[in-house]
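Person: Show me a sequence?

Helper:
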Amino acid sequence: MPSVLDKPYFRDEAEAYAKLESIVWPNGPVCVHCGETGRIGLLKGKATRPGVYKCYACRKQFRVTVNTVFEASHIPLRDWLKAVYLVVSSKKGVSSNQIHRTMGITLKSAWFMTHRIREAMKEPEWREAGPLGGSGMTVEADETWVGGKAANRAYGPIPEKQAVAALVERGGRVRMFHVPHVTAANLAPLIARHAHPDSRFMTDESNVYSHAGTWFKSHETVNHSIKEYVRDEAYTNTIEGCFSILKRGIYGVYQHVSEAHLKRYLAEFSFRYSYRIKTGFDDMARFEKALAGIVGKRLTYHGTGSVRPAAPAA
């Protein structure tokens, strides 16, 4: 059986651009400068880079990578597509060091690539994506903490853990959030925005959900403090399973995640879980879904070692 990485768009630059164009421009090329769709031509010739178009309305050239996470990159697009596939098809993630060794690029480039890819995996604004759950559906809520363990430190202060709250549809999507503290005041706005009130709401016995639970069709709890984990349809095992994948990835693959970038790692794990086999997405469908999310999310590298959203064009 041939390797999926033998596909033409993982090996040839022109094929890579054609693949990306089919996803970003399903109805044909669109000028990124003026929005023209008709008077556009693909430039050809030995001296022309692959995928360059010219708009004969505004007289400017452009490629499908403009205004995307791939813009202004010196790394070949075919390598970008390989990296995207590796990230979306690895259940617990793939480290920058692994990308660096596998693809033969510098570690700095691999680190920046993986952060750009995580940005592409970030879900659209909640208003556009819609709430989780709905009539006849169940939403579970819970929280966990990620970070170093006191027992593992060699010296220095106990490493601070970061709080992660999450909402998950049974059999569907998940959304994870980095929150400063697990309090009702911090979690209530997230629950109100991201969970449909017609859902059945499932939590543990924590008081942080007691008020928010009144917003839903029903609110059922399980009492973990007395070792109650399942009572008929009341349980939070689905969201515990999400957290187990997150922690195995962070501790086993990434080993350390800084507070500044935690939100992007949460977007990565949320994306892979939401678009898993059970929801109708195999590795290739998940790959194409991630590529569809690259537009308008360009990041720039700063000398401090951080990545930030690029300033909007004037």
